[in-house]
Specification:
- This protein has 204 residues and is mostly beta strands.
- The protein has two domains: 79 residues, Beta Barrel (Elongation Factor Tu (Ef-tu), domain 3); 92 residues, Elongation Factor Tu (Ef-tu), domain 3 (Beta Barrel).
- Helix content is 14%, strand content 41%.
- It is built from four helices and twelve strands, in the order βββββαβββαβββαβα.
- The protein has a six-stranded antiparallel barrel. A six-stranded antiparallel β-barrel has the order 7-8-11-10-9-12.
- The radius of gyration is 17 Å and the shape is globular.
- The two termini are 32 Å apart.
- The relative contact order is 0.19.
- It catalyses: 2 6,7-dimethyl-8-(1-D-ribityl)lumazine + H(+) = 5-amino-6-(D-ribitylamino)uracil + riboflavin.
- This is Riboflavin synthase.
- GO terms for molecular function: riboflavin synthase activity.
Length: 204
C-alpha cells in the first residue's frame, strides 16, 4: 500500500525491452536508495512495481505488456523524471489517502493555468471512469494524492500549491501529456454498490 505522498523524483537511466516486457533502470536520490530489499514494492508514477535488483543508486524494475498498455510507463524514455513512493509501513503517517498502486486508467491534460504562486491543471478521463470523480473527492495522479476541484462531464481539475510542484514532476507537464489515474477505492465501492441497488449516478 501507498499513501499518495510522493517522496521524491527519480530519473529513468535505461530501458531494456524484450517481447512483452520492459526493464527499467531508475536512478534514485542517494538518501532514498538505502535499505531497499529485492522484492520490495515501489510506486513509479503511481504504478506499483517490484524491485528486481539494485546497483548503487539505481533500482531495477520489470513491467509486463499489460502494465505498459494500461499506464504511461510504456512511453517513458531515458532522462525522464518520475514520481516515486516506497511502500508504506505499519505505523507510518497517512498524509494523503490509501493507494494500491494499481492504475485504473490514464487521463489527458487539456488545459493548464498558472497564475502567480498557483497552478490549475485540467484533465480528461475516459467516460467510464468519470462516474467515480466528484468535487472535493480524492484521486491519485501519477502517484500523488490530490483533491479534485471542479468536475464537468468527464473533465476535472486539481489546484496545486508551490510545494506540490517542487516535490513532484507536475511542473514538467504540458497540455497533451498523459498521466496515470488511480480512483479512490472507497468512492468506487460506494458508487458501484449504489448502482447495483438501482441508485446509479445521474449523468452530469
Amino acid at each position: 500500500m501507498f499513501t499518495g505522498i510522493v517522496q521524491g523524483i527519480a530519473i529513468v537511466d535505461e530501458i531494456s525491452a524484450v517481447s512483452g516486457l520492459s526493464s527499467f533502470s531508475i536512478r534514485f536520490p542517494e538518501d532514498q536508495a538505502h535499505n531497499v530489499t529485492i522484492g520490495a514494492s515501489v510506486s513509479i508514477d503511481g504504478t506499483c512495481l517490484t524491485v528486481t535488483r539494485q546497483e548503487g543508486q539505481n533500482l531495477y524494475f520489470d513491467a509486463m505488456q499489460e502494465t505498459l498498455r494500461l499506464t504511461t510507463l510504456g512511453k517513458l524514455k531515458p532522462g525522464d523524471r518520475i514520481n516515486f513512493e516506497r511502500a508504506a509501513r505499519i505505523g507510518d503517517e497517512i498524509g494523503g489517502h490509501l493507494l494500491s498502486g494499481h492504475v485504473h486508467s490514464t487521463a489527458d491534460i487539456v488545459a493548464i493555468d498558472r497564475p502567480e504562486n498557483n497552478c490549475t491543471i485540467e484533465f480528461e478521463v475516459p467516460q467510464a471512469w468519470a462516474r467515480y470523480i466528484f468535487p472535493k473527492g480524492y484521486i491519485a495522479i501519477n502517484g500523488a494524492s490530490l483533491t479534485i476541484g471542479d468536475v464537468t462531464d468527464n473533465r476535472f481539475n486539481v489546484h496545486l500549491i508551490p510545494e506540490t510542484l517542487r516535490a513532484t514532476t507536475f511542473a514538467d507537464l504540458t497540455v497533451g501529456d498523459r498521466v496515470n489515474i488511480e480512483i479512490d477505492s472507497q468512492t468506487q465501492t460506494i458508487v458501484d454498490t449504489l448502482a447495483r441497488m438501482g441508485y446509479d449516478r445521474p449523468p452530469s
